[in-house]
Hints:
Blueprint: H1 3-11, E1 16-21, E2 29-35, E3 40-45, E4 48-56, E5 60-65, E6 70-75, H2 76-85, E7 90-91
Antiparallel strand pairs: 1-4, 1-7, 2-3, 4-5, 5-6
Amino acid sequence: MSLNEVLELVRQDKPVVVWNTMNLAVPYVNQTWIYKPTGETIKWLTSLHALVVIGYNDNQIIVSDSLNGKVRYFDRKTFESRYNAFGKRALYY
Length: 93
């Protein structure tokens, strides 16, 4: 789902787990392999990390970060770029 869809859920007081990177590091391809049934090249991006989005403002995304157990504020544009790199994956209930 798009980051705007994630933020709409957060606006409704629903925390959302998203896949991003540790400390918003630039993701990079660590390894590739061929999926034999289809011939598709699979690229494994590293620095993958799950965060819980708990708030936002015009310029920042507010998360609960299990990496350090703290609430952190990240630049919104950078956060969205990393989120998109991992396929816009989110989980909520």
